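Example record

One chain of 406 residues, shown exactly as stored in the release files.
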Amino acid sequence: MPLLTWKNKKLGETTPATLKTDAWINASTPPQNRLIRGDNLAIMTALLPKYEERINLIYIDPPFFTNRKFSARIGRDKDSRKPKEWERVDGYQDNWSDLDTYLDFLYQRLHLMYRLLAPNGTLYLHLDWHANAYARLLLDEIFGAENLLNEIIWTYHGPSPIKSAFNRKHDTILSYVKNKKDYTFNVDDIRVPYNENTVKTFKSSKKAGFGKTPNLERGKVPEDWWYFPVVARLHNERTGYPTQKPEAMLERIIKASSNKGDLVADFFCGSGTTAQVAANLGRNFITTDATWQATRVTLNRLAAKKASFSLEQDTAFPLPKLKSVDFAELIGTCVRIHAEYASKLAYWEVDQDWEGKLFKSGTQAILPVRRGEIPPEINIEGSIGNQICVRAVGVTGERYQTILKK
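Predicted structure tokens for this chain:
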């Protein structure tokens, strides 16, 4: 089998991350789901003692080797057709000194993912024309070429400045299993209706299909080319995070290659789509990203869906420091933010029995993605401790905390 080589190619030894839990969200006991900020290489190394061969499905959407810097949109009131007017913050870097550096980055991480993947697990690697050909050779080496399950083409529409070649309007998703004789593929969970023309053809002629009549009511298994609109066209999903992927695409992957109660991981979580869809479908998740922007967007999305999870950090990639600011007050059993902070916050939450160490977020208020204001009040249900801790994240990522006494 051909092997891809580059200068100094070898598996390195990685020091495990020191993971620290910052908060439990919607949980009174340690939650199974985990959102972790930090370097995924060190995080995965730290996860090995507990999770080796235990993750049922891994989907990753890593940098594509575009050699670009991506920004995230945070403003909501500007014309979506005029990107020069948008308010932006840093998203993530996809810059590399050379291809060798990029390949080594992928190689180290894919090996760890192989170790974390269950014996009957599946990996989906999402890339595009920049590097997918190299990645397939890496995966052939790690998983074995015989364990390629699918090369999936995700095709979409959109404007393009290209005038000297065909417009590049597809990504490639490489799907590998550890064992072709034992893996999860829930075929009946992902069937789609036949095209109307196909249905009409079979109804009009018994000779259609060369004597083979499909079960038209049951539907068909999707081909390995998928059309899903890009998120820019899905107003109810857009978070402003660059390169966000559509929920319907992740729903198909998760339904096909995992079962309820299984563990799904995404080590380049970006906007958090994988974790959100996994939670919606009754799966558990581990999701990580190196940037605070991705972590906080994911935090918002998961909290908005009332998911139960822990917020953690690799101590080498600490969360932004909490600023002690008087931005809220307690009136009876209602916590209210001060009016001057209403336009500054993207997210705020309450621990109604603050013990001084681990923050237990029981209730959250979240700025709507498209329209509306952040709720200025949270009514506390149940018993209230001697101290209440209120935390918030500003629209540009700063973190605030205030302590209220009963």
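Notes: The mean pLDDT is 91.
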